[in-house]
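Reopening this ticket.

The earlier resolution said the output was attached, but the attachment link was broken on my side. Pasting everything inline this time so it's all in one place.
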Amino acid sequence: MLGKHQEVYGAFYRSTHDNEHLDTRTELLVGLAAAMGMNCQPCTKYYLDQAKKASITNGEVSDVVAKVMAVNQWGQTPLTRD
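Inline output:
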């Protein structure tokens, strides 16, 4: 059964690269943020490699890293009622 699930997931994942609303640069930066947020090291490496090929600047990557770090830290802060 695992093979069938992998096949279905693979088709879904590939379809996320063929979107009509995000340009390639945005799609790669969103993918990088998601990969980092999920702490998926192979995924993060993939998106960093793809970002470099797409001429995404170090500054743009740094902005994404900072945002992921900020959201991740906030997400670990318990909510309190005022």
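Reporter confirms the inline version is readable. The radius of gyration is 15 Å. The helical segments are 2-15, 24-37, 41-53, 58-75.
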